[in-house]
Design a protein that fits this description.
Radius of gyration: 15 Å
Oligomer: single chain
Helix content: 25-40%
Shape: globular
Strand content: 25-35%
Number of helices: 5
Number of strands: 7
Structural class: alpha+beta
Length: about 160
């Protein structure tokens, strides 16, 4: 797995449905998956984060490329740098044609390793809709424990899972 950081310019191009410009900026071939309504919500949110705090760039959503074949299989990252309690929340999405091939687990493994390598991170969080059986299955075996639930304006009810980094 290789993670490719997206600049604000690339995300703005995605928000304008300009896959050619976004791909050129990112250095990888992005697909229609990156300009879906759901993806655009992510890019809009991340552009706003980068505008208010450019220092969070390395923690935000990135393009995921499977190696050695070079296929762009999704996007993943954290919702921001560690908070004052040392918690980071992860998120990922796999392109439908690449689902059920182990990419989500590989992405999750990479995100857990990234978090564990950072001394400031003490807790890793994942929030998942109770009816998202694929994501619930993906986090099983990683030591995540359900610690509560919350209502998300975008996603509705989410179960909150955490694991020590």
């Amino acid at each position: 797995m290789r993670f490719v950081e997206l600049s604000s310019t690339a995300m703005m191009a995605l928000l304008k449905d300009d896959l050619d410009q976004a791909s050129a900026e990112a250095g990888v071939a992005l697909t229609e998956f990156f300009v879906t309504d759901r993806a655009k919500w992510v890019w809009r949110y991340r552009v706003n984060q980068l505008s208010s705090d450019p220092g969070c760039a390395g923690w935000l959503t990135q393009v995921v490329v499977a190696e050695p074949e070079g296929a762009v299989v999704g996007y993943a990252g954290f919702h921001g740098p560690p908070d004052d309690a040392g918690m980071v929340e992860l998120g990922y999405s796999v392109v439908p044609v690449h689902r059920r091939q182990g990419y989500a687990r590989a992405i999750l493994t990479a995100l857990v390793r990234r978090a564990a390598a950072e001394a400031r991170v003490r807790t890793l969080r994942a929030t998942i809709s109770p009816d998202n059986t694929a994501s619930l299955a993906t986090i099983s075996g990683f030591g995540f424990v359900e610690v509560g639930e919350r209502w998300d304006e975008e996603d509705g009810l989410e179960l909150i899972f955490e694991v020590p980094a």
